[in-house]
Every structure is written in structure tokens, then in C-alpha cells.
């Protein structure tokens, strides 16, 4: 077999894979990068559904490693839309001439560590094999699409789509009866836009969600100029804050305020839009009574917006606010006031099957020309498990992390028995609880430092120690258990995927503190990692 030998293989060409590839190449390392799609972008390549946009504010949703890149790019509005993010990532990849170093349309099927050589062997779908020292995954943590196993889908005579695998050509719903299953971020963003076209829209909701108006607006030319002058501040906020953008928790607890003052603050957050409410109080995610007060504010808003009381009741969530990923919308609840939009509560009347012509629930059939699954992803581990990753003694990652509770990593970056493998935005890192590009830059920079330090010191193998990862996992779990996150089913816990064991493989301590921990590990000569030269074996 014709096998290439390189220093590092990177899987994925989204935000994380692109930056990792750039840094490796800057360091003079030989690389291969593989990407399943025929272009860069990662989740932003695939998530092209109507209304797709990011819920981080644009000026934070970019890299800051290059001041020049930051200054030459201008976002058009407060929240970046999918086409603009994709343009940005293409611009970055072109600027740094990364595309010639990426093999597109190619899935990595298998990666196995050969202990006798301390090398990874990476096999692709096209039959190519590459041998490398470092195996780095930039596969995202919410990128393995979940299409629910509803009987009859194969019989459906209309078109069906998953929001995370949207066709490239525009899908025109004009004059069609459309069904949307799922009301997470993707459903909530796409429902108002689909409703503008469809003749009739039926929304199949399993769990109602809190959502806050985005209050989106175009950036003025003056603001765009000002942002370029604020590079240092924005970079610092992204690196040091708790969630990788401008927000910091203040010193106020929910119950510190009188009901009137609390209403005033929450109303202010509601008017500003986006994630403001989430950061108004510092104990929102730890204090049940406080959380209920904030939840009740949003519940009342839903009932004010939605005209029909029965529909409003069905749209009103009863879980703790903020414990599912906070959603930001444009006209979501207002859409249910349109005469051609119907809400179907599938907890009350479950979907029984999909027929040739629609969706059948226990209460009857909804005739449909098109069906959209906005049913999310097998989060955290799904995209890693799509590859057959094997460490020492042919141990598969899937077997090592057999169920949710068994996910074990050290810092979310590495896992014992899988030497020289690094995961960008891996399970048990804090990345999904904030602004991803900020988490990604930190991960890539730490991994690059680690590789360069090792190369300089002549260390050929670096592997998380079992003890360190047991401790890190226990720490992550303990911290999660002190919050309300674990009291709500979500893709964070794995509860959205049938048969997946529940856990909470996320570090909830925040980006800033996590960065400090990672830096300390490096300062202590990679404490918790076993590093050696092959000769020592
Ligand atoms: P999410 O947030 O996981 O939302 C998926 C939605 O689909 C959610 O409402 C689910 O209900 C629903 N769902 C999942 N399976 C089913 C079945 N079988 N029947 C009915 N409804 C179902 O995914 P998104 O794509 O919206 O967003 C993912 C992330 O991307 C988001 O958090 C942002 O970070 C960006 P459930 O709540 O599980 O009862």
C-alpha cells in the first residue's frame, strides 16, 4: 500500500481543524487534513437551513490569533448568518493558503495507534492510509446529525431534510404543507422563516423551549470601524471571560433583588436580547428558587406574545431556565399567531408513524409535502464515534467510553491509552458552554504548545495518565452536580438520543478558569501526562 508519512493528521476543516492546520504548518510540521465535505466550514458547511445563524454576537465569533485577519473582516449584523460565517472561514482558509493542504470529500474511517512504532495509522474512505505521530480531531461536538427512528420514514413520498445536512441549492417551500419536528435552536431559527413560505406549517414539539429575542440589527459603518480599534479588548474578553465573549457574571444573586428591581433588570436583558438574561445574575444555574423566578419571567413573556392561550400553554417550558442550551430567536413565538401555523404537542399525542403523505400522531394525520427534522445531534461523542479510533492494545474509544458515565478525558483534550491523540472541543472541555471560537483558539494553542515543547525536549510520546483523567472526570461531574444543568434532559446530558446513557461530559467552570488550569498543567511540565522518549521503553 502507498502510505504517506507525516507529523500530524487533522480531521475536520471547521473552525478548529483550520486553525490547528495553520499552526502545525507555521511550526514547519508536515500535515494531512481530511474533511468529509467538499469545502471548509465544518458545521457551517452543513447547517444551511433557512434562518441559520449563530447565537454568539458576530464580533466575538471569529479568530483573534491574527490581528490582520480580525481587522480586514467586517461582519454585517449583530448575529452572523450561516452564509457569512462560511464566507469568513473560506476567507481565512484562502488567506493562509490552507485549502491545498486539505483533502476534501474524504472521511476518516479508522485511526489506530501502533504501539511498536508509536505512530498512528489513519485510514480514509477512499482507501488511503497515512502514518503520523500526532492524531488530532477537529470534528466538532454537535455535528453527528440525529434523525429519529420513526417507523415509515422510507415510505414518505415528499422530500425530507435534516437541518444539519441541508441541501446546497435553495429549498423552496412555497405553497407546500411543511412539517418541522424539533424545537431546539435549529427549529426555533427555521420555523419563522419556513412559515413565511409554506402554505401550512405543522410544528411537532416534544419539549417546549425558552427563547429570548435576538434583537438583531445591521452594524453601522461607524460601529464596524470602532470594532477594529477594539481588537485588544475583544481578544482579552474572549480569552479571559467565563464564556468567551463580553459577558461576565456580576455579584448579584437572583433573590438579592426585590421583585420590582428583578423585573426591571430582566426586562432590560429581554430588550437587549440574546444572552443578556443568562448573565444578569450569578446564581441562575445553581439556585432553584432564583432560577424559577427568571423562568417565570420568560414564561410570562411567552403567554403575552402568543394569542391563543392553549397554544401558549403548550409552548411554555417548565424546566430550569438556561439548562438546555439558551436559544435566541427572531419572531419565534409570534409565528404561532399566524393562521397557517399549527403546534402539535407530541408528548400529548405521540408520533406513531410517517405515512406516504404525512405524519400520523395518536390524534390523527397531518398531511405534508415536506418534512424537516430539526432533531439535533448525537452531541459530545457522536462525531468521534463515527470514526473507529483505536488506542493501545486495539482498544476502541467507543468501548472505552461505553456509556455516558464512562466518558473520561484529561482536560477534555486527551484520554489515557490514546497517546499523541488530541481532541479539539472534546468531551469534558467547557467549549459547548460558550462562544466556540474562543474555546477553539485556546485548545489549538495549548495542543500546539504541548507538541512543540515535546518536540523540543525530544519527547516522542505524550499520554494522559489514568489517575489524572479519573480525577478530571470526577471534578467535571462534581461541578456539574452543583448546578441545575443535570436536572434537565438535553443534548448536554445525552438524553436526546435514544439508548444513550446519561452523563454530563462538560466542564462547567467556565472558559477563563479552564484556561488557567491548562496553563498550570503546562507550567508544571505537563502534570498528569506521561511523557517519554521511545528509548525509555
Ligand atoms: P437540539 O437543541 O438538540 O434540538 C433538537 C430538538 O428536536 C429538540 O426540541 C428535541 O426535543 C427534538 N427531538 C429530538 N428527537 C425527537 C423526536 N424523536 N421526536 C420529536 N422531537 C425530537 O438541536 P438543534 O439542532 O436545534 O441545536 C443544536 C445546537 O446547535 C444548539 O444547542 C446550539 O448550540 C447550536 P427534546 O428537547 O430532546 O425533547
TrEMBL record:
Q: Which UniProt keywords apply?
A: FAD, Flavoprotein, Monooxygenase, NADP, Oxidoreductase
Q: Does the keyword NADP apply?
A: yes
Do the record's keywords include Membrane?
A: no
Look up the record and name the cofactor or cofactors this protein needs.
FAD
**Which residue positions does the secretion signal occupy?**
none
Kindly list the GO molecular function terms attached to this UniProt entry. Answer: flavin adenine dinucleotide binding; N,N-dimethylaniline monooxygenase activity; NADP binding
Gene3D superfamilies for this protein: FAD/NAD(P)-binding domain
Origin superkingdom: Bacteria
Cited SUPFAM superfamilies: FAD/NAD(P)-binding domain
The entry assigns this protein to a family as follows: Belongs to the FAD-binding monooxygenase family.
**What's the protein called, per UniProt?**
Predicted flavoprotein CzcO associated with the cation diffusion facilitator CzcD
Species of origin reads: Salimicrobium halophilum
Amino acid at each position: 500500500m502507498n502510505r504517506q508519512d507525516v507529523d500530524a493528521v487533522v480531521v475536520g476543516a471547521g473552525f478548529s481543524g483550520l486553525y490547528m492546520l495553520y499552526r502545525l504548518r507555521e511550526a514547519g510540521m508536515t500535515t494531512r487534513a481530511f474533511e468529509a465535505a467538499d469545502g471548509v466550514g465544518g458545521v457551517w458547511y452543513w447547517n444551511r437551513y433557512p434562518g441559520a445563524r449563530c447565537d454568539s454576537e458576530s464580533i466575538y465569533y471569529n479568530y483573534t490569533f491574527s490581528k490582520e485577519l480580525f481587522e480586514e473582516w467586517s461582519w454585517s449584523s449583530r448575529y452572523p448568518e450561516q452564509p457569512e460565517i462560511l464566507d469568513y472561514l473560506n476567507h481565512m482558509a484562502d488567506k493562509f493558503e490552507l485549502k491545498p493542504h486539505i483533502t476534501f470529500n474524504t472521511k476518516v474511517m479508522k485511526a489506530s495507534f501502533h504501539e511498536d512504532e508509536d505512530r498512528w495509522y489513519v485510514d480514509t474512505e477512499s482507501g488511503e492510509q497515512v502514518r503520523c505521530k500526532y492524531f488530532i480531531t477537529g470534528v466538532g461536538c454537535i455535528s453527528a446529525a440525529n434523525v429519529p427512528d420513526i417507523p415509515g420514514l422510507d415510505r414518505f413520498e415528499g422530500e425530507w431534510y435534516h437541518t444539519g445536512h441541508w441541501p446546497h441549492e435553495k429549498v423552496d417551500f412555497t405553497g407546500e404543507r411543511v412539517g418541522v419536528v424539533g424545537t431546539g435552536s435549529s427549529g426555533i431559527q427555521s420555523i419563522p422563516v419556513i412559515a413565511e413560505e409554506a402554505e401550512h406549517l405543522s410544528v411537532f414539539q416534544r419539549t417546549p423551549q425558552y427563547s429570548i429575542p435576538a434583537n438583531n440589527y445591521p452594524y453601522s459603518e461607524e460601529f464596524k470601524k470602532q470594532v477594529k480599534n477594539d481588537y485588544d479588548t475583544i481578544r482579552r474578553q474572549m480569552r479571559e471571560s467565563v464564556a468567551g465573549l463580553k459577558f461576565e457574571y456580576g455579584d448579584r444573586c437572583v433573590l438579592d433583588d426585590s421583585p420590582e428591581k428583578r423585573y426591571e433588570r430582566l426586562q432590560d436583558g429581554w430588550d437587549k436580547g440574546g444572552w443578556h438574561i443568562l448573565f444578569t445574575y450569578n446564581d441562575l444555574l445553581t439556585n432553584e428558587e432564583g432560577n424559577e423566578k427568571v423562568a417565570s419571567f420568560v414564561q410570562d413573556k411567552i403567554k403575552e406574545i402568543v394569542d391563543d392561550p392553549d397554544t401558549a400553554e403548550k409552548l411554555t417550558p417548565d424546566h430550569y431556565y438556561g439548562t438546555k442550551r439558551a436559544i435566541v430567536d427572531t419572531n419565534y413565538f409570534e409565528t404561532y399567531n399566524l393562521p397557517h401555523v399549527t403546534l402539535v404537542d407530541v408528548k400529548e399525542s405521540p408520533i406513531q408513524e410517517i405515512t406516504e403523505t404525512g405524519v400520523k400522531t395518536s390524534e390523527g394525520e397531518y398531511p405534508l409535502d415536506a418534512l424537516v427534522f430539526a432533531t439535533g445531534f448525537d452531541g459530545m461523542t457522536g462525531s468521534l464515534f463515527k470514526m473507529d479510533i483505536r488506542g493501545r492494545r486495539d482498544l476502541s474509544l467507543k468501548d472505552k467510553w461505553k456509556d455516558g458515565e464512562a466518558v473520561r478525558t484529561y482536560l477534555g483534550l486527551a484520554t489515557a491509552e490514546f497517546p499523541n491523540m488530541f481532541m479539539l472541543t472534546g468531551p469534558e472541555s467547557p467549549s459547548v458552554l460558550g462562544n466556540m471560537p474562543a474555546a477553539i483558539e485556546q485548545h489549538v494553542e495549548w495542543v500546539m504548545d504541548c507538541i512543540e515543547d515535546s518536540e523540543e525536549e525530544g519527547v516522542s510520546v505524550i499520554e494522559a495518565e489514568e489517575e489524572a483523567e479519573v480525577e478530571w472526570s470526577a471534578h467535571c461531574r462534581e461541578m456539574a452536580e452543583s448546578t441545575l444543568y443535570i436536572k434537565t434532559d438535553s443534548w448536554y446530558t445525552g438524553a436526546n438520543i435514544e439508548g444513550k446513557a446519561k452523563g454530563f461530559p462538560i466542564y462547567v467552570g467556565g472558559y477563563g478558569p479552564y484556561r488557567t488550569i491548562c496553563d498550570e498543567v503546562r507550567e508544571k511540565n505537563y502534570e498528569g501526562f506521561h511523557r517519554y522518549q521511545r528509548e525509555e521503553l
